[in-house]
Each structure stands twice: as C-alpha cells, then as structure tokens.
Amino acid sequence: MASTKICAFEELGINEAVKVEIDGVPIVVVRDAADAVFAIGDTCTHGDISLSEGFVEDDTVECWAHGSKFSLKTGKPLNLPAYEPVPVYKVDLIDGDVYIDPSVIVPV
C-alpha cells in the first residue's frame, strides 16, 4: 500500500490530536511543540475509546475515559489500566504535506 496524503503540515495544530481513517484503519495524528509529527493507532487498547478525543501533553496522548497515556514515539502505554501498545505508523513529510502508510508499522 502506498502512503496517503493526510493534510498540509501547517494544518496540524500544535499538541492537537486529529483523527484520520485510511482504508478502514483509524489513526490519530499529532504535531508536537518541536514540529515532529506522529501517527499512532487511534483506539485505546483498554477500552475501545478514540484517542483523538483525548489530551496531548509532551510526547503522549491520554485516553479521556480511563486516563491511560500512550507514547507518541513507541505506542506503549505509560500507565494502567492499558497494558497493550497501539501501533505506530511511519510518517513522511513531503513538500509540506503529511503522508502516512497504514501498512507500515514502525518497530519499537
């Protein structure tokens, strides 16, 4: 599968979670304060809740329902009740646009 253009880099707000769906795969995209862009699975592994509705702080996104925080870099939960990681997807910035390929999961 090829990378899909999500949006222009400048359209992403700093520390705001944006939900996208590519070929049925829900993904949350975050631009952090250092202008790095991350893409992780959008579904909390504890409660089947959309992480894009959660809170972004530093390099984490927190599930609003039960408070599990997930690393934007590794997808690993940093606290309970979640204990399973979410997938991390490769992000490419090309000519000012954000591209994601949901078939490429970044090993951590």
From TrEMBL:
- Keyword Metal-binding annotated: yes
Looking up InterPro entries in the UniProt record yields: Rieske_2Fe-2S, Rieske_2Fe-2S_sf
Listed name of the protein:
Non-heme iron oxygenase ferredoxin subunit
Q: Which residues form the Rieske domain?
A: 4-100
The UniProt keyword set, sorted, is: 2Fe-2S, Iron, Iron-sulfur, Metal-binding
Matching entries from PROSITE patterns are given as: RIESKE (PS51296)
| Superkingdom of the source species | Bacteria
Which molecular function term from Gene Ontology is one that the record holds?
Answer: 2 iron, 2 sulfur cluster binding
